[in-house]
Each structure stands twice: as structure tokens, then as C-alpha cells.
Amino acid sequence: MRTTGRRDGQGAFVECDERSGCVRPGLRRARGRLRKAAPFAGLAVLWSALSGGCGDGSDATKTGVAEKGGTTGIGPVAADADRRTPEFTRLFVETTSRAGLKFRHDAGSRGAKLLPETMGAAPVVFDFDGDSFPDVYLPNGGPEVRASSRPAGPGGKLFRNRGDGGFDDVTEKSGTALPHVYAMGGSAADFDGDGDEDLFVTALGDDVLLRNDGGVFVDVTATAGVGGGRWTDAAGVAHPEWSTASAWFDADADGDVDLFVAKYVAWTPETEIFTSLDGVTKSFTTPDRYPGLPCRLFLNDGDGTFTDGSAAAGLLPHLGKALGVAIWDFDGDGLLDVVVANDTRPNFLFMNRGGGVFSEEGLVEGVAYDENGRARAGLGVDVADDLGDVATPVIAIGNFAAEPISFYRRGRAGGFTPTAAEAGLAGPTFAPLTFGLHFLDADLDGRLDLALANGHLEPDIGASQAGRTYAQAPMLFRGRGRTYDDVSNAAGADFARPRVGRGLVVADFDRDGDPDLLLTANGVVPDSGSAVLFENRPKEPGAKPPHWLRVELRGSAPNTRAIGARVELECGGRTAVRYVRTGSSYAGQSELPLLFGLGANEAVTALKVAFPRRGGAAPSVRTIPVPGVDRTIVVVE
Fold first, then answer.
1. pLDDT category, 211, cuts 50, 70, 90?
2. Whole-number Å distance between alpha carbons of 244 and 90
3. Which of 296, 327, 409, 525 has its Cα between 20 and 30 A from that of 385?
4. Which stretch of DSSP H or E encloses residue 171?
């Protein structure tokens, strides 16, 4: 990072850098205020030249149960700039108003420009009423940025999917508004094993666990013991931790789902640090000036309560500034591992060693820093097997402006290599600031694509940095194997509109067999902060549509949603591997059912399911008959 000095409006010397602007000496600063490179900064990591599948359809078949519903740091790369826009057959059309998703995020901005105002909240997609149509919870902030003793704000909203392309606001009768909570995002799972999905909401301050009792949600945070930890300031005063992303999975393989919670920085309004882009006017401070916090793991006791297993898990020594969490079994031992995207701190890779114990291997595995030995501003994160070879999944991480997204590919012998440049992603993603990102098969051709939600932190960024904008258009990259093509401009005028993007989740909301997108925006400036629903449509409605298969899993209690199950689909001579996962992207959650694009293939060669491992036994693999395509298969454990 380039650091310079200048005089402010009162003639005092201020320190400035390209990302964070200017800070006056003498004002209180948190430890670690300047982002430091790794001990091996300046050494380039050698980039390997690694060369780059096969909704509610009209037919849904349930396996094992009666049939359902009576039916069966580098700059732009020249090669990237020379790419021509390839043919892309889909449009993402905004249908927010027609769908009835009336929502506006309130960042609590009242002119003070406090750090939490920059963040925005991420959506949670889950099926709270059990009808197999994805519902949406939209968390909210405002009206005041404080961790506790806050006045009532607008609160979040729960929208029930009617199944006809529209949603009903059921917030009031469901009890999910949480008006006194400055919420960041959340995740959902059936933590009590009663068959319906419960909701966990992360927050600046105590988190909230809402138990789903037949569509009415009850706050059981205190009883469950998952409200969060405390950090202590210099005066010895304890403050609630700031939580961001979260994920449910069976961390100790005892059969029920546990809760992993990512933490950000130690911040209060009283410790807010003055930062300026011009040396005079207060700007939003960046997190490199505040101490980080450790992630937490809450182990499910099976009786409605949880034990804080963070210390025993080995999490507490690792202070991060986390905004994204994704789960995947990287070493194939049947235990889910956790990758954490950290903002201005090295990323974490917690490898699951069994019994609720993890070892942090980010540096050893090669995902902690970028190829120049620098910690980037990790925001959202996702993992995918985009090549269909099982052994070489990729980790994608959104980063700050002038930092292209990170794209770490795992080698067959272990370890990750940064491959954003080779993949064609470095140049196009260099300028934007990317929060949420998620893999999906947008055009159903059997290859995974990558969607990004972009938007800057500083509304006035254009005044001090020419060419930078606050609102930024989302992006879409079409997967071509080991490379990706930027098809953002081919995805339609609605998709190309600049927005202050934050959360980004994927679901087939209208159950027509293709993945739709839901983007949330930050509400710092007036008339901003609306959620945006993008419906996936063919450019040529009369053209022959690609085929697809949607897979829903039903696990044995207490893990009734089979979180952590692995699904392998063979089609057209290729293999696609997915996991039933919570978390991913920035602070939110996409739907749990898995949607596979099949392209022109009219049959599936094989569908194999490995339900989550329990105890020391390896998970058994079942081969599931698939009677046809363009339908939903429900597999019961």
C-alpha cells in the first residue's frame, strides 16, 4: 500500500494511503492499524499453469418415500481486456416490485460516518414453511449504530414464497422483525431436529437464534447460549462481539448441526477513528485500524442448548476480521472444513480434525495471502468444484477496489495456487469492490459460472479518486472450464445497472429450473438500500431450453436437511460434485437444494449421494435412480 502525507485544513500533518485515506496522528488508533504484508512479502508465489455436468419442475420424484405431489494485488491483464463477449443465452431481469419484495435497508446513517454503516446486510434464503419454495429473510440495521441499548428501527422482513412468482410479507405474524437488532446477515438450519428450519441472525451486538415453531419464531438465544462472546476495551469494559457471517454443519460428526460464527472487529462508537480522504472531512474508517476478533464454534448439545467449543476447537488464538464463511470437505475425510475470508487480515482455512477440533492451515495451504504475500480485503467467499474432477476445487474471495478477486485452486497433491489471472478474472475484477459472490450454473450448460455483487464503501469516493464510483454494477462470469468469460454486459440492462451491492444469494425462486439471484444494497445514502430480485430468463423464449435436475435431500433427525451431504452427478461424460451447504458469499445464505445444469443432455448417467458422516464410520454412498430430467428428485436418507 502506498502511504503519503499531507496537511489538513488546520495545517496539521495527516497520514494518507490509497485505501483508507488520511488519519491524524495523536488520535487514538487500534493496534494493527496499518495493514502489514506477510513475512515473505515481495516474493512472488509461482503460478501453476493448470489447464481447465453435466425448482419445482412439472415432474418431481421422491426416492425412498411416496411420490411428491402426485408427480414423479495485480493490475489488469491484457489477455482479459482482449476478450470478446461470447454468446450468452440468458437475461437477468429485475422483478423485485412484481414479486412483492418491498424492503429498504437502513444503515443508521445520521452523518457520523461510523464503520458499521459501510457494511450492509445479507439475505438468508430458507424454506421456513416446508413447501419446497425458497423463502427470504432480509435483515436490517438502523436507526442507530450501537451494539446495545438501541431504539427500535425498521427491523428485518420475512417474505413467504407463494409459489406463483410472488412473496407475502409475513414478518409481523412470524415474529422475525427484530427491531432492536443491528443485523448483518444470518443462516438457517433445523438445529432442534423437529423438521422445520430455524433462523440465526448475526449482528453488531448479541446475535439472535429464532426457533421455528410452525411458522412462528421464538427467540431462544439466551436458553441456547449462542448470543456471542465479549471483548474488553482498555478501560476494562466488556462489549458484545460484532458477528457477520455464519454457517451450520455437523462439526463434530455426532449427528446434529453445530454453529460456526465469524467475527469482525472490536468496535464501539466511542472508539471510532477519524479518517479522511481529503484531510478535512470525515470519511468512513476501514477495518485495518481496529483489532480483530476470533471466530466461534457452538456445539449442539441436542437438547436445545449449545456449548461454546471455540477454545477446544482451536479457534481463539486466530484473530481475524471475517466477513465470509464457506464449508467444504477439502481433504476427502468426510468432515467439513471451513474457509474464512478476512478483511485486511490473512484468510483462514480451518481443517476439521474430528471431534470438534480444527487446525488453521491457511498459510500452509496457500490461501492466507495473495501471490505477492499481502493480506487482501477479503469480503465474500464461495467454494466450488468447477472442473468436475473432485480433486481441484476453487475458493473465490471478493476483495477491495484495486484488488482483483482471489481465485485459489487446490492441487491434486494438496495446497492451493492463486489462479485469477489464468482464469481470466484478474483484469475485469481489478477496479470494482466485491462483497458477495457465488457460483451458479446460470445458463445450465453444465459448467459453473460466477456472480459478483459490487459497491464501494465511500459515497464520495469519486470526489477524491477519479474514475471510482460508489454504485457499481454486478458482474457475471461464464465458466469455460479453467477460464471464465465476462458476460456481465450480455446479461441484460437490469443486471448492468450500478448498485451499492453487498449480499448476493442464489435460489430458484420461481422453481422453473434455473437459478435466480437476490442482491441486497447498502442504505447509507437516501433512496438506496433496496433488495433486488433478478429472474433468470432465456433471451430467446422460443429456443430449445437446456435441461436441468434439482436435488433435494431429507436427512434423518436431527440433521433433517442433510447439511454436509455430498451429491455427485454424472452426465455427458462429465462429473459435478456439490455439497448441501449453509453460509457462503457475504454474511448470508443461498438455498439448500442443489440445481444441476445438464445442457442438451436428456438423461443423467448416475446420481450418487453420500449423507453426512456420523461418528467414526465413513459415509455410505447411494446410487439414486433418475427417471428423467427437468424435474426435482427428493432423496430421503
1. very high
2. 32
3. 296
4. helix 171-174
Tell how many helices (H) and how many strands (E) occur in the chain.
7, 45
Three state DSSP letters for 197-264: CEEEEEEECCCEEEEEECCEEEECHHHHCCCCCEEECCCCCEEECEEEEEEEECCCCCCCCEEEEEEC
Total Cβ atoms within 10 A of residue 34: 14
How far, in Å, are 231, 232, 240, 243 from residue 236 at the CA level?
Answer: 9, 6, 13, 21
Residues 488, 449 contacting (CB under 8 angstroms): no
Nearest to 588 by CA among 282, 222, 240, 184: 184
Read off the C-alpha cell for 544. 430449445
Distance CA 546, CA 363 (A): 41
Prior bond to 143 cis, omega within 30?
yes
Place of cell 422453481: 511
Between the alpha carbon of residue 114 and those of residues 81, 96, 637, the distances in Å are 37, 30, 48
Buried b / exposed e over 70-93, threshold 16 CB at 10 Å, is: eebbbeebeebeeeeeeebbbbbb
C-alpha cell at 12: 496539521
Instruction: Look at residue 391 and tell me whether its pLDDT is greater than 50.
Output: yes
Report pLDDT digits (tens) over 99-134.
Answer: 999 999 999 988 889 999 999 999 999 999 999 999
pLDDT (0 to 100) of residue 38? 35
Alpha carbon 243 to its chain's center: 14
pLDDT of residue 145: 83
Per 3-state DSSP, what percentage of the chain is helix, strand, and coil (rounded to 5)? Answer: 5, 35, 55
Angstrom distance (rounded) from CA 448 to CA 450: 7
* Contact assessment for residue 452 and residue 398, using Cβ atoms and an 8 Å cutoff: yes
Q: How far apart are CA 584 and CA 306, in angstroms?
A: 23
Rounded CA gap, 281 and 190, in Å? 48
- Residue 609, C-beta contacts closer than 8 angstroms, at least 6 positions apart: 551, 553, 565, 566, 567, 568, 621, 622, 624, 635
- In angstroms, the CA 21 to CA 370 distance is 22
pLDDT digits (tens, 9 = 90+) for 265-303: 999 999 999 888 788 888 888 898 999 999 999 999 999
CA angle (329 as vertex; 327, 334 as ends), nearest 5: 125
pLDDT band per the 50, 70, 90 thresholds, residue 54: low
Say whether pTM exceeds 0.85. Answer: yes
Residue 472, amino acid: Q
For the record, the C-alpha cell of 456 comes out as 464501494
- Torsion, Cα of 417, 349, 391, 451 (10° steps): -80
Cell numbers 468447477 correspond to: 386
Cell of 397: 474471495
Per-position b or e across 141-159, b if 16+ CB within 10 A of its CB: bbbbbebeebeebbbbbbb
Taken as a whole, the chain contains a residue count of 637
Q: Rounded CA gap, 328 and 331, in Å? A: 9
**What residues have CB less than 8 Å from 533, skipping those under 6 apart?**
94, 95, 96, 99, 101, 509, 516, 517, 518
Query: Which positions ≥6 away from 168 have C-beta within 8 Å?
Result: 100, 159, 160, 162
| Contacts (Cβ under 8 Å, ≥6 apart) of 222 | none
| Phi and psi angles of residue 125, each rounded to the nearest 5 degrees, phi first | -105, 125
